[in-house]
Amino acid sequence: MLMGIVQGPGDFSTGFLWQGHTAYATTLNGAPSGNIINNTMTLDMSGFTGEWNGVSFNATPDPGTLATAVSLIGNGVYFYTADWTHLVTASEVPAPYYGFTLSLHLEGIAVTSLAAPVPEADTYAMMTAGLGLVGLMARRRRKQV
């Protein structure tokens, strides 16, 4: 699943067989978004949907059910999981497709944009000393000429 990009049936999952029909997860109702701050991931899955047997239904997290976990695996690269439930209601789909609870689990790799590394104080000291030496050499050359 790609954050910020709407994806249809089969774009990020091969789906699964349920009651003889393939069910797919999609983000056709809105691209997901999220961020990771201090090893905590927040996700907006408000556009997450399901497609099954010609029926499209909401699959967004019910309030208070979204749980995420992240683990740093490299420089700005995280492994994440997201788990939630959603009760499919009569206002979302026609009978007899409502009344069941979806339990959803996602896992993947999240890559964050990295800020440029901040040099350490030693680096600044060495750079200042080097510029000072270059300045002294330029001054000596100017006096000799």
Textual characterization of the structure:
The chain contains one helix and nine strands. The strands form three sheets. Strands 1-2-5-6 form a four-stranded antiparallel β-sheet, with no helix packed on it. Strands 7-8-9 form a three-stranded antiparallel β-sheet, with no helix packed on it. It has a two-stranded antiparallel ribbon with strand order 3-4. The chain has two domains: 16-114, no CATH class; 119-145. It is rod-shaped. With 145 residues, it is of the alpha+beta class. The longest helix has 24 residues, at 121-144. 17% of the residues lie in helices and 39% in strands. The protein has one helix at residues 121-144; strands at residues 16-18, 21-26, 33-37, 40-44, 49-52, 55-58, 67-74, 77-87, 101-111.
Reading the helices and strands in chain order gives EEEEEEEEEH
Strand order of the largest sheet: 1-2-5-6
Number of domains as seen in the coordinates: 2
Major sheet attributes = 4 strands, antiparallel
Helix content: 10-25%
Strand element count: 9
Task: Briefly note the structural class of the backbone.
Answer: alpha+beta
